[in-house]
Amino acid sequence: MPVQASSTEWQIAPSTCFTDKPGELCRLQIKVTLPARLANSHREICFFLNKKQLQCLRSQSAELQLPITLADNADLHITVDGTRQFDKKLLIQSLVPNKRRRVRSPWSFF
Question: For residue 105, what are the contacts with CB-CB under 8 A and spacing of at least 6?
């Protein structure tokens, strides 16, 4: 059973990506702040996006930068030395709402 770290120890920002229109790819650079116990510990930290491994590295500082491209909402999870430690939902928001135009007028004479 995975050990869950408290959410106050880990920080990931931003967790929402904004696009101009619905359906567009969203590229963002997320900043991951590690808990104090992991900073400079040289432990292996791996990042997974929807169960697909993005990157593994040794922790050498308290903050890491990670480039991500999203096509839809995604789940990011982080493992430390193979043990799942943290989960975060990454969301995509469109600046233009996904609405259909009304075909006919909302009123009539009859």
Answer: none
Q: What global pTM score does this model have?
A: 0.73
**Residues 80 and 94 sit within 8 Å (Cβ to Cβ):** no
d(CA 10, CA 72): 23
The string over 36-71, giving b where at least 16 C-beta atoms fall within 10 Å of a residue's C-beta and e elsewhere, is: eebeebeeebbbbbeeeeeeeeebeeeebebebebe
Over residues 69-107, the pLDDT tens digits come to 999 999 999 999 888 988 999 999 888 776 666 666 677
For 11-94, CATH gives 2.60.40.2470
**Domain residue spans of the chain:** 11-94
